[in-house]
Amino acid sequence: MKTIKLNNGIEMPQIGYGVYQVSPDECERCVSDALKTGYRMIDTAQAYHNEEGVGRAVKSSGINRSDIFIVSKVWISNYGYEKAKASIDDSLRKLQTDYIDLMLLHQPFCDRYGAYRALEDAYREGKLHAIGVSNFYPDHLIDLASNVDIVPAVNQVETHVFNQQTEAQKIMEEFGTHIMSWGPLAEGRNNLFSNETLTKTGNSHGKSVAQIALRWLIQRGVIIIPKSVHIERMKQNLDIFNFELSDEEMAEIATLDTGKSLFFDHHDAETTKLFMSWR
C-alpha cells in the first residue's frame, strides 16, 4: 500500500475506504469487506453516525490496530474547546480504540479555533496521532495555520477531475499540509462515468473510468477515499497501482477542471445558513 508521510512523520495510506452515506446498519459489513479487500485506512466522521460500525469492524477484523489508519472528524455542533474535547473522547469510545490516527475539523464554521485547540491538546496527550481540517478553502487554511501551534497535517476537500483544487493544493503545500479528497469520483455527477476523455484513456489502459479518475488523483499526490457498498467495486477502486498515466494523459484530464464545486460552495451565504441549521 502506497503511503504519504505527513508533516509530523506519520505514514498515512494514500488510498482508503470512505463511509460517508453508509448507513449505520450497513457500516460494519462494508468496513469488514473493505479490510478483507486490502484497505488499511477507514474514513468516518461524527456526523456520519457510523463510528460504532467502524469500531466493531476494526475490532473483529483480526488485523493489528497499528496496521489500520482511522480518520474521523469533529462536527460543528461539537465545536468550542470543551465540547470538542468531550466529543473526541466520545469518538474514541465509539471506535473502541485508544487513539485515532487522524482527527479533522469537519467544517470551517462556528468556533473552529476552540475546537482546534482541543485537537492540539488531544494530540499532545496521544489520543490523536495527527490532526487537520476538512473543507477549509485557502483563506480559511491560511488564517488557521498561521495562528495555531500545530499546523494541520491534512486538509480534506472536494477534489475530483471536475474540481481539481490545483491552486488550493499549492497553498496547502506551502504549510506542509497534504490534500485529501472527498468525493474523488464526484458521486458520478457531471456524467463522470461516461466522460469521453476518461473513457478513451481507460480503453487504452484496459481500466474503468473510475480507475482512471482515481489514478489521476494518486499521481498528483492526493489522498483518496472512494466509497462503494459493493465488494467488487471496492476491489476495482483499489486496483490502480499496476499502471501509470502519461504526462500527456495527465494534462488532457487536467482540461476537465471547471474550478467549481459540484456540491457546496463554502463561501456562499445560503450554504453557510444551511450549515448553521445543522449545528
Give a nutshell description of this structure.
The protein contains eleven helices and ten strands.
What do you see in this structure?
One of its GO terms (molecular function) is oxidoreductase activity, acting on the CH-OH group of donors, NAD or NADP as acceptor. With 279 residues, the protein is an alpha/beta fold. It has one domain: NADP-dependent oxidoreductase domain (TIM Barrel), CATH 3.20.20. The strands form 2 sheets. An 8-stranded parallel beta sheet has the order 3-4-5-6-7-8-9-10, with helices on one face. It has a two-stranded antiparallel sheet with strand order 1-2. Helix 3 crosses helix 4. The longest helix is centred in the first third of the chain and has 15 residues. The chain is globular.
Q: pLDDT average, as an integer? A: 97
CATH architecture, please?
Alpha-Beta Barrel
Helical stretch tally: 11
Radius of gyration: 18 Å
Keywords: NADP, Oxidoreductase
Organism: Xylanibacter rarus
GO molecular function, one term: oxidoreductase activity, acting on the CH-OH group of donors, NAD or NADP as acceptor
Protein name: 2,5-diketo-D-gluconic acid reductase
